[in-house]
């Protein structure tokens, strides 16, 4: 029930304003505090003002102290106090510390999918970027009380790191299946990508930068690897590039004729495979295209002729080459790719370009082929009408004019190729399984021995040779060589700084091989040891017939030969050769075997 007193209005006394609160109620019982006398009021104001000034001055002094130099006070990097230093001073101080900090020079321990590895910071470009670190330190706020540590800015070469990681830990994760478009005949097939899991240069670099100076092994993450070209894009390449490309021939017109590029050649030269990132960028491979249309191109192009050596008057002579004219398929490839994707505009006009010889006169002049550095001759019987002599001359013709560049190795088998009937070689006695019997190319071993000795006395490096099983007195003992296609070869290396040009000559009873170059040695000679372990030949009777070749037999023995290299009147080096000859049986061709 509401009383009369309840209905009375509340009476509030007037309130004074407060500097911090709007509604402060003053109890009515308290009387207002009388203001201080004017003199006390002035003293209070003066004291407060002086205090404020003092505090402001102190704060300003502290700020000035903290901001002295380019780097604020209290800032440290790797425990080095850089506070208050100018930028150049801070840089020098940090560099000096890094030169002695073992954490910076120590090998980095990393772990990748359970595999540990140790990396040298210098090999991966791992460093503290001093300038960037000082920049970071200078931008920080001052620390009025205590220190503020700034993390060093670390840099690493992501590519070098990636290479070093892959070499150190080997295969990790799973390989990404790269996208591609392949051809079976003229039918394109889409190869869709599949994601892999492996190292990523950027993520690896971030991990190493973050964990390098922690002192513990750095865990390198494996990330999902996705091809840059998606499965949908591969399908689109099939429809928009591959299928149109082989739908019809391409035509290349030129001033010397027209080249038709059939669909099969397009399929062989159209590249729709991905790079390391899984990106397919369609292109025409000029080398593959040239190989695919070589016969047709030969009718349009004029091949360049290289400068070459010939022999005139028994001496080498350089004959200048000639420029050629051809279609620059590499430059034409982008236009061919565009035309290949068109249904009707499949003709491209090409200009013939000048093709310089690969070898010029100047190139040959630099080789120093100026003097005969060795020559060697062996004798044969039967005249030039015998099959054996004809084989020797055939090989000599093939080798004459061969040029061996510095550092290159000459292989007789590689140079002549197979020495068969198609190449003009005939049947003559050869040693097969210790028996003399007719065989195609017999006699080439004599040319091989002559060539071997010419290279031997020129001081060139012996790479591969094999002396005969039996000793024949037409050859120098030990330093001779047989050959047999394709199992036995003769090779020498031109280990001189000059080119070596091979010349051959023959008479009705001799074969000569000479080497032209610039002399490295004053001369090369041979010393032989006495023969030892001499064995007599056995006598063997064989059934008479075409495969039986009678011999008088030869003794067997072992002997050494030393090649002596002379320079400035002294033997500069010695090289030892040793060979054991088997005794050649005395073969007698008896009565034919009973049938």
TrEMBL record:
PANTHER family: EXPORTED PROTEIN, EXPORTED PROTEIN-RELATED. It comes from the Bacteria. Residues 239-347 form the YoaR-like putative peptidoglycan binding domain. Keywords: Membrane, Transmembrane, Transmembrane helix. Pfam families: PG_binding_4, VanW. The chain crosses the membrane at residues 45-67. Residues 1-19 have a biased composition (Polar residues). Residues 29-38 have a biased composition (Pro residues). This is VanW family protein. The keyword Transmembrane helix applies. The keyword Transmembrane helix applies. Residues 1-42 are annotated as: Disordered. It comes from Actinoplanes subglobosus.
